[in-house]
C-alpha cells in the first residue's frame, strides 16, 4: 500500500493506493497547524483503517509539506549565524542594490535571517578558479567555536567567496564546527547551491541553515510515526521541482520543499489531463488559504531555477507555480476607503469559515458560496462536517450591512473579487508570457477550484473546464505519481571556443561523479534513474543564461561547436536575435537524476447510480438570479452521459458549479468535463 499525504493550511489530504489492484482510498481531515505531523499521522492511521489494510502492507508514504514555507513566512526559523569571507558579511544586506518596490521608498527590505551581530568573518580567499590565495588563519578558526557558543545560535551557514570552484575552506570550517558543537546544525554553500552569484548563494544557504532544526524535528516525528506503523515503510518528501526525495535529503536541504504541495498538484494534473487527452491546460488549485495556477503546454510545466520566499532569493529548481492569497477560507473585509477586499488573511482550519460551525466570526469565500446555495446546506466532507448555515448567513449579512447591500449582493461581491484575483493570476502566467488562455483548458482542483472554475473560465474566454475525479485531493494524488528526483549543478566559466571540449567534458564528469556518490548513499542501482545533462550558456558580458541540453555522449570539438550553435538558436528563439559572432560562455553544468515513472492499474470507476439528480435547490447565478438547480452526486453519474447546466455536482471533497449555458460530461476515465454551449 502506498499513501500520499498533503498538508494544507486548512485540510490535510490523504490518498492511499493499492498498486496490486489499483483501488484508491480517499480521506480528508482538518490540519493541525501547531503540529502538522499530528494530522498527517492521524490521517495515515485512519485511511489504513478505512481500507482495511494490514499495517505491515504499508510500503511507502510520499509527503507534501508547507512546514518550511510557513516557518520562513512567519519568522519561526532557528537563530542562524553566517560565517563568511572577510569583507563580505554585509552581502545579505547589500543584495543587488535594488529596492523591493521601485516606487515605494518606505517598503522594508526582506529580513536577512542572519542578523548583523550573528555574522563572523574569516580572513580567507580563493580565486574564481578555486586556487587558494589565502588560507584561513588558525587563530580565527580557534576563535570561531567559542564565539558561536556564546552567541547561542542553533544553526550555522558557511558561505565563502568562490566556494563553488572549491569547497575545501568551507568543508574545513564546517567540519570544525560539527566536531566541537555537535548540537548545532551546519550547512555550507557548496552543499546547498554549488553555483556563482554570491548574494543568491549566501541567501539560499542561510535560509537552508535556518530551517535545518525545524525540518529535522518535524520529519523525525513524522518518520518515526510511519516506522511505528510499518517498519519497512519509507518516507519521501515532495520537492519544488515536482520530484520526491528521501526524508534524509529533505533534512539536509529543506529549501527544496518550499512549493512542495503545489508542485505535487501540477504532477497530479498532468496525469489527469493525459487521461482526458488534454495536453495544453492551466491548473487552478484553490485550497483554504490560497490559489495556485500553473500553465502546462504539451503535457509539460515550465521549471524555473529560483524562487523568492518572503522576499529572499532561493536557488532551487521549482515548478513555475504562481500563487495568490485567495482560497475558500480567505476573509472578506472592508478597507479604510470603504472598499470590499478578499484575503490574503485566512480563517485557516481553526476556527475556519463560519459555515464550518467551529466558531468562525469573519466572512469568507466559503461562507459566500454557502449563502449563494452553491455548497450543501447540511454537511460537507461526505457528511463528516455539519454545516452551520445560520452562522454563514449571519457573517455575510453583517458584511452586507456595512456595504449597504443585500446579503446576496454582498456574497456575490465576495465571489467576484475572489474570481478577479484568480483571473489576474492566470493572466500573469499566460498573457504576460505570450500565451492566449483561450488556447488552453482550465483544470480545476482543490476543495474550492471546481466551485469557481466555471466563472473564471468564462471571464477568460476558456471554453473547457476539466475536473478530476477527486479534485480536492489532487496534490495527494500527485504525490503517488511523482518520480524521485535529484538535481546537481556546478559553476565553471568556460569560453566555448576551439579546444574547450576537454574542459566541458571534465566538468560534466565531476558532476556525474557527484551523482554516482548520491546514488550509492540512496542505495539505488544505475537502472533506477534516468540521467539528463544540461548547460547554462550566455554571451560574454551577459548577466543571464539559457539552458541547452548537453547529453551524456563523448564531447569533442564537433559537439562543442554544436552546443555553441544550439545556444545561438535558443537565444534567437527567446529574444528574437542571435549574435553569432560573439563569444559564448558555459556558466554551469546541470544534471538531473529522475526515477522511473510509476505505473499502476486503473481503479474501477464504474457508476453505482442512475445519473439522476438527488435533489433540487435554489442557487444564485449572475445571469439568472435565484434558479431551481438540479443537484447531482458525482458517484451516481453515468460515464458518457452529457447534461446541460445549470447544475451542482457534489462529492466528498468539493462541489462543482455548472453555469447556465454550459454542459457537463463524465468521461470513462472519471474526469468531468464542462464546456460552453456552441
Automatic annotation (TrEMBL):
InterPro entries with a match to the protein in the record: ACX-like_C, ATPase_NBD, Hydant_A_N, Hydantoinase_A, Oxoprolinase-like
EC number: 3.5.2.14
Record's keyword annotation contains Hydrolase: yes
Keyword annotations from UniProtKB, A to Z: Hydrolase
Record bears the keyword Hydrolase: yes
Protein name: N-methylhydantoinase A
Residue ranges occupied by any Hydantoinase A/oxoprolinase domain in the UniProt entry: 202-486
Gene Ontology MF term list: N-methylhydantoinase (ATP-hydrolyzing) activity
Domain Hydantoinase/oxoprolinase N-terminal: 3-179
Residue ranges occupied by any Acetophenone carboxylase-like C-terminal domain in the UniProt entry: 503-665
Amino acid at each position: 500500500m502506498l499513501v500520499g499525504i498533503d498538508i494544507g493550511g486548512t485540510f490535510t489530504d490523504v490518498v492511499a493506493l493499492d498498486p496490486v489492484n489499483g483501488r484508491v482510498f480517499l480521506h480528508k481531515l482538518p490540519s493541525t497547524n501547531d503540529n502538522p505531523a499530528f494530522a498527517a499521522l492521524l490521517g495515515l492511521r485512519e485511511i489504513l483503517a478505512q481500507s482495511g489494510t494490514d499495517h505491515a502492507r504499508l510500503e511507502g508514504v510520499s509527503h507534501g509539506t508547507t512546514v518550511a514555507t510557513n516557518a520562513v513566512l512567519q519568522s519561526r526559523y532557528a537563530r542562524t549565524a553566517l560565517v563568511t569571507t572577510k569583507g563580505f558579511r554585509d552581502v545579505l544586506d547589500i543584495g543587488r542594490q535594488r529596492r523591493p518596490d521601485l516606487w515605494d521608498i518606505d517598503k522594508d527590505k526582506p529580513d536577512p535571517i542572519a542578523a548583523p551581530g550573528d555574522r563572523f568573518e574569516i580572513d580567507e580567499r580563493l580565486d574564481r578558479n578555486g586556487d587558494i590565495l589565502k588560507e584561513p588563519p588558525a587563530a580565527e578558526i580557534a576563535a570561531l567555536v567559542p564565539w558561536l557558543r556564546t552567541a547561542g545560535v542553533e544553526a550555522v551557514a558557511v558561505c565563502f567567496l568562490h566556494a563553488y570552484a572549491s569547497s575545501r575552506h568551507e568543508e574545513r570550517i564546517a567540519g570544525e564546527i560539527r566536531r566541537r558543537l555537535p548540537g548545532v546544525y551546519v550547512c555550507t554553500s557548496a552543499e546547498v547551491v554549488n553555483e556563482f552569484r554570491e548574494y543568491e548563494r549566501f541567501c539560499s544557504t542561510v535560509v537552508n541553515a535556518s530551517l535545518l532544526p525545524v525540518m529535522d524535528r518535524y520529519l523525525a516525528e513524522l518518520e518515526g510515526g510511519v516506522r511505528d506503523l510499518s517498519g519497512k515503510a519509507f518516507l519521501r518528501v515532495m520537492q519544488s521541482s515536482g520530484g520526491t526525495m528521501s526524508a534524509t535529503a529533505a533534512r539536509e536541504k529543506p529549501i527544496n520543499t518550499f512549493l512542495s504541495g503545489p508542485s505535487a498538484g501540477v504532477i497530479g494534473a498532468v496525469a489527469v489531463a493525459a487521461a482526458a487527452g488534454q495536453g495544453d491546460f492551466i491548473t487552478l488549485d484553490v485550497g483554504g488559504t490560497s490559489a495556485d495556477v500553473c500553465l502546462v503546454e504539451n503535457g509539460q510545466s515550465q521549471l524555473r531555477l529560483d524562487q523568492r520566499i518572503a522576499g529572499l532569493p532561493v536557488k532551487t529548481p521549482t515548478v513555475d507555480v504562481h500563487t495568490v492569497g485567495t482560497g475558500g477560507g480567505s476573509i472578506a473585509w472592508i478597507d479604510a476607503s470603504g472598499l470590499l477586499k478578499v484575503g490574503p488573511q485566512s480563517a485557516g482550519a481553526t476556527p475556519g469559515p463560519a459555515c464550518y460551525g467551529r466558531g468562525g466570526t469573519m466572512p469568507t469565500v466559503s461562507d459566500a458560496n454557502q449563502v449563494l446555495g452553491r455548497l450543501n446546506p447540511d454537511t460537507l466532507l461526505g457528511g463528516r462536517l455539519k454545516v452551520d448555515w445560520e452562522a454563514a448567513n449571519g457573517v455575510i449579512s453583517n458584511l452586507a450591512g456595512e456595504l449597504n447591500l443585500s446579503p446576496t449582493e454582498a456574497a456575490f461581491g465576495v465571489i467576484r473579487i475572489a474570481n478577479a484575483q484568480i483571473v489576474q493570476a492566470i493572466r500573469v502566467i499566460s498573457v504576460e508570457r505570450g500565451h492566449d488562455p483561450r488556447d488552453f483548458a482550465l483544470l480545476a482542483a482543490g476543495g474550492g477550484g471546481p466551485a469557481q472554475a466555471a466563472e473564471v473560465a468564462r471571464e477568460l474566454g476558456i471554453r473547457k473546464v476539466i475536473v478530476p475525479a477527486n479534485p480536492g485531493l489532487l496534490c495527494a494524488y500527485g504525490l503517488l505519481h511523482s518520480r524521485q528526483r535529484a538535481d546537481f549543478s556546478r559553476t565553471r566559466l568556460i569560453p566555448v571556443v576551439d579546444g574547450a571540449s576537454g574542459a566541458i567534458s571534465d566538468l560534466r564528469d565531476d558532476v556525474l561523479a557527484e551523482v554516482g556518490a548520491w546514488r550509492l548513499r540512496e542505495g539505488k542501482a544505475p537502472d533506477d534513474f534516468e540521467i539528463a545533462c544540461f548547460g547554462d550558456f550566455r554571451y560574454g558580458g551577459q548577466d543571464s543564461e539559457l539552458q541547452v541540453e548537453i547529453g551524456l555522449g563523448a564531447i569533442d570539438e564537433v559537439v562543442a561547436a554544436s552546443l555553441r550553435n544550439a545556444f545561438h538558436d535558443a537565444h534567437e528563439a527567446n529574444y528574437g536575435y542571435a549574435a553569432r559572432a560573439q563569444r559564448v560562455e558555459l556558466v554551469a553544468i546541470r544534471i538531473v537524476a529522475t526515477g522511473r515513472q510509476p505505473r499502476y492499474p486503473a481503479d474501477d470507476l464504474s457508476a453505482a447510480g442512475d445519473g439522476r439528480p438527488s435533489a433540487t435547490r435554489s442557487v444564485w447565478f449572475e445571469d439568472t438570479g435565484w434558479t431551481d438547480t438540479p443537484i447531482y452526486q458525482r458517484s451516481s453519474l453515468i460515464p458518457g452521459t452529457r447534461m446541460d447546466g445549470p447544475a451542482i455536482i457534489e462529492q466528498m471533497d468539493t462541489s462543482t458549479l455548472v453555469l447556465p449555458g454550459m454542459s457537463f460530461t463524465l468521461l470513462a476515465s472519471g474526469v468531468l468535463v464542462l464546456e460552453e454551449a456552441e
